[in-house]
Amino acid sequence: MTAVPRLFSILRQGPYLIASVHTALDDSQLVRFQEDLVHRIGADRARGVVIDVAALDVLDSFGSRTLRDVAEMARLRGAVTVIVGIQPDVAFAMVELGMDTGSVLTALDLEEGLVELDRCVAAPPVVPT
């Protein structure tokens, strides 16, 4: 019996969750990833999420929209999201095709993503006057 490799993992590091996508996900797998991550934000009382997509060499419009949606759902649950590891070819294709990550923060790699979370989570909230 051969073990089926996990397509993504969600690990806790202090007040943050680190979600790594290990290979391209089909639409149903992306929805499962979204559901699992949003559930874990509440269960672990996460203040921030890093989504690492470094293993992806392709990101279609559904995947891009799902990442934006996950970040918005995380925000509504009280967590900041940073997407890290977007490959150069993926970034080029996203720009050429008019896809973007909306207002979702991005960083080069996991280390910079964690620094960005620290900066955002430590900053006092802006109160409108």
CATH class, named: Alpha Beta
Q: How is the CATH topology named?
A: Transcription Regulator spoIIAA
- Content-based structural category: alpha/beta
Quick check: average pLDDT? Answer: 88
CATH superfamily: STAS domain
Q: Looking across the biggest beta sheet, what order are the strands in? A: 1-2-3-4-5
**Distance separating the two termini:** 62 Å
Structure overview:
With 129 residues, the protein is of the alpha/beta class. It has a single domain, classed as STAS domain (Transcription Regulator spoIIAA, 2-Layer Sandwich). The protein has 4 helices and 5 strands, in the order E-E-H-E-H-E-H-E-H. It has helices at residues 27-43, 61-76, 88-96, 110-122, and strands spanning 8-13, 16-21, 48-52, 80-84, 105-107. A 5-stranded mixed beta sheet has the order 1-2-3-4-5, sandwiched between helices. Helix 1 (27-43) packs parallel to helix 2 (61-76). The longest helix has 17 residues, at 27-43. The radius of gyration is 15 Å and the shape is globular. The termini are far apart. The mean pLDDT is 88. This is STAS domain-containing protein. InterPro entries: Bact_StressResp_Reg, STAS_dom, STAS_dom_sf.
